[in-house]
Specification:
The chain is an alpha/beta fold and 507 residues long. It has helices spanning 40-43, 45-55, 83-93, 123-132, 144-147, 161-169, 199-211, 225-229, 241-253, 276-280, 290-293, 309-313, 316-321, 364-371, 376-380, 405-423, 432-438, 443-456, 460-476, 484-492, and strands at 3-9, 18-26, 31-35, 65-71, 105-107, 110-111, 117-118, 136-140, 154-158, 176-177, 215-218, 267-268, 298-301, 323-327, 332-336, 340-345, 384-387. α2 crosses α3 (83-93), α7 (199-211) runs parallel beside α16 (405-423) and α7 crosses α19. The longest helix has 19 residues, at 405-423. Keywords: ATP-binding, Nucleotide-binding.
């Protein structure tokens, strides 16, 4: 047979669109033509394939006119992921392996000049798509563990091209890789009990974890802002199966292999010098940024005002929608970005405003200029603002901090389960109609909240977020109805808003 078709998968964002590798051998002037919008690495595959076949002592049809088409023709193809599919297509078209053996298979893999199979990026999305199409996935052995995260897909892995040829001929069958296998669970995560004192900050962290609320910590250096933020993954519930696969798929296309510490939520902490493309994604071939790599996890931005303001403003839409849209001239991609933002900052450029030692020398204009790097719309989208202060240092009589991560994690898990049972989502993701339904207040409390919101000068968005935080506080206390103490505490977490909050009566 002079025509062979091999199924493969491209990498487009975190998607794996199907690609048909069509190989045709014809009589005529010997040549090899590769079409189908291939990038440079794909065009070079014909040389890798020729050397791999010859070094594996397989016949390369060099006396034929060879045409290789990567369909669909309008989909960009990149990388060496099509090497193996092209090689198998040439072998099938020249009759060295039965073409029928490739009909129910999808093929991924890069070829070394010796014929060995090298791993490629983005295998997990391809494995998910292969499972949905009920095909067998042929790939390098180095990618087998990553593809095996997907249940219900048949995986055949090999280390050399000859092994796959013998398998497809039925001469030496390769064993199927056990799908659904999981990497070892995470070890001990940083524990909340390591944080001494800072009871109010730990309370705010638990509230943020319980409702997936965004949190901003501000205070002088050394108060434990970064230490506290690093303890958040230890009190969050483990990822569910589908969530873990989504996170692992993002890591796969970023070239980091399978999900580390399955099924712990990701914790990303980019440097404040990160560019817009690094934070939100992009590039000539768009790739997920830090916010997508923090999907279903935590994005920690330390020294928040030191980030470029234009970069921070790009966070506003994904914080609301849970996804980021990247537009290019020939394609538009959507990356998931349902992350929980934890940010930290100093109160002034030198960091010591309000310190009892009086060492801050920043003028009001400098402080205003420093804080103005954070826009009002961005601060509106952060549910909790908490000021942290230095506490007295003592090595004598020091006790373990309370609560620890196990205790806090149990309270967080119980509160989250109440939210899911009541409304099907966490409180931070309630839309306006859900807020009206699940955060309803008695008339007296509603009137009290309206006065407090007017006194603070809060926007409608910020006032709705106050209600969501109050709903989370009630869930932590297993209360079906939001009470005035919950509203008062939620309002206390708006400490960076324009007007100061006087002591409000609870009755």
């Amino acid at each position: 047979m002079s025509l062979a078709i091999v199924h493969s998968r491209a990498k487009l964002g975190i998607q794996a669109p199907p690609v048909m590798v069509e190989v045709h051998l014809a009589n005529g002037m010997p040549s090899l033509t590769l079409v189908g919008l291939p990038e440079t690495a794909v065009r070079e595959s014909k040389d890798r394939v020729r050397s791999a076949l010859q070094n594996a002592r397989l016949e390369f049809p060099s006396l034929k006119r060879i045409t290789i088409n990567l369909a669909p023709a309008d989909l960009p193809k990149e990388g060496g992921r099509f090497d193996l599919a092209i090689a198998l297509g040439l072998l099938a078209a020249s009759g060295q392996i039965p073409p029928a053996s490739l009909e129910r298979c999808e093929v991924l893999g890069e070829l070394a000049l010796s014929g060995e199979l090298r791993p490629v990026q983005g295998v997990l999305p391809a494995a998910l798509a292969c499972r949905d199409n009920q095909r067998t996935l042929l790939l390098p052995r180095a990618n087998a563990a990553e593809a095996a995260l997907v249940q219900g897909v048949e995986i055949i892995a090999a280390e050399h091209l000859l092994e796959l040829c013998e398998h497809l001929r039925g001469e030496q069958l390769l064993p199927a890789v056990a799908a659904g296998s999981r990497p070892p669970p995470a070890g001990n995560l940083p524990d909340l009990r390591d944080v001494q004192g800072q009871a109010q900050a730990k309370r705010a962290l638990i509230v943020a974890a319980a409702g997936s609320h965004n949190l901003l910590l501000f205070g002088p250096p050394g108060t434990g802002k970064t230490l506290l933020a690093s303890r958040l993954p230890g009190i969050l519930p483990a990822l569910e199966e589908e969530q873990a696969l989504e996170v692992a798929a993002i890591q796969s296309v970023c070239g980091r292999g399978m999900l580390q510490h399955w099924p712990t939520r990701p914790f990303r902490a980019p440097h404040h010098g990160a560019s817009a493309a690094a934070l939100v994604g992009g590039g000539s071939q768009p790739r997920p940024g830090e916010i997508s790599q923090a999907h279903h996890g935590v994005l920690f931005l330390d020294e928040l005002p030191e980030f470029d303001r234009k970069v921070l403003e790009m966070l506003r839409e994904p914080m609301e929608s849970g996804e980021i849209h990247i537009a290019r001239a020939r394609e538009q991609l959507t990356f998931p970005a349902r992350f929980q933002l934890i940010a930290a900052m100093n109160p002034c450029p030198c960091g010591y405003q309000g310190d009892p030692s009086g060492r801050c020398r920043c003028s009001p204009e400098q402080v205003e200029r420093y804080r103005s790097k954070l826009s009002g719309p961005l601060l509106d989208r952060i549910d909790l603002h908490l000021a942290m202060h230095n506490e007295a240092f003592s090595l004598t009589g020091q006790t373990v901090g309370k609560p620890d991560s196990a205790e806090a994690g149990a309270a967080v898990a119980a509160a989250r389960q109440r939210q899911l049972d009541r409304q099907g989502c966490l409180n931070a993701y309630l839309d306006l109609s859900d807020v009206r339904q699940h955060c309803a207040l008695p008339t007296a409390d509603a009137s009290w909240l309206e006065k407090a919101v007017a006194q603070l000068g809060l926007s409608r968005r910020a006032s709705h977020r106050v209600l969501k935080v109050a709903r989370t506080l009630a869930d932590l206390e297993q209360q079906p109805v939001i009470g005035r103490p919950h509203l008062a505490e939620a309002l206390q977490y708006r400490q960076l808003d324009r007007q100061p909050l006087d002591r409000l009566p609870l009755s």
